[in-house]
Amino acid sequence: MTGRFHRFRVGDLECTALDDGTYHYRAERYVANAAADELAAALASHGLDGASIPSPYTCLLVETGGRRVLLDTGGAGWDPGVGRLRDSLATAGVAPDEIDVVVLTHGHPDHIGGNTGDDGLPVYRNATHVMTRAEWAFWTDPAVLARMPEAFACIATRNLPPLRDRLDLVEGDAQIAPGIRLLPTPGHTPGHVAVVLESDGVELLYISDAALHPMHLEHPAWHPVFDIDPVAAIASKRMLCERAVANSSLVLAFHFDPFPSLGHIVRRGSAWAWEPGA
Ligand SMILES: [Zn+2]
Hints:
The chain is of the alpha/beta class. The protein has helices at about 25-30, 35-45, 85-90, 110, 135-140, 140-145, 150-160, 215-220, 230-245, and strands at about 5-10, 15-25, 55-65, 65-70, 100-105, 130, 165-170, 175, 180-185, 195-200, 200-205, 250, 260-270, 270-275. The strands form two sheets. The protein has a seven-stranded mixed beta sheet. Strands 8-9-10-11-12-13-14 form a seven-stranded mixed beta sheet. A hairpin with a 2-residue loop joins strand 8 (about 175) and strand 9. The longest helix is centred in the last third of the chain and has 17 residues, at about 230-245. The chain is globular.
């Protein structure tokens, strides 16, 4: 299987967007709280069939100060259409052993699924794995896992406990490496973080799942069924949108089609819109 990658720079930071594959979601999973006619109009405006919204999983590799930092590990084990991150890394010429730090923005299957291989052992065995304390506590709590969909609980159980020996639990605003800092954006999950890259006055916002589709920018009150605390999630999304506009940030939106999921968030009336492109 051939992987796909896209190299670009953020100031002095060498960045590589990595394709993990594409999954498809039903519109009612993506937008839990829209009036049917408004959702139909929004889907039509994007040329989408509500039965199947394409959703790439786009991870990011950042090289800074001689260290390789990988943001999220994709959705291996979730669906046959995804789980290609290692192929994409190989195509980009990077071996798993060369990764120094893995940042897990949250504990959903599409962001942690590639932590371990078929043997159940960590894939990035030389890497320190960073997760917020709140997120780790949530996804390793048996009472939480018992009320999660079975696939979510299975993938968390398979992909988090094996990291114990190489884990760095941090607060939501932790500095990870030169030019790489976490930004707390709770709501989608309790300890969900975005990641801010900053170099030479240029900023990239890796928003992870603060928005899953441009429709979530155009209709800020809309949220997916996956948001555990929708009120907090919408506040986090608004904060990120304001920041992206104020700083003219380049944005990597993990689930925005097409790969490499790069673009800018622009103001549109009292809401926002997505302008794809680097
Ligand atoms: Zn996701």
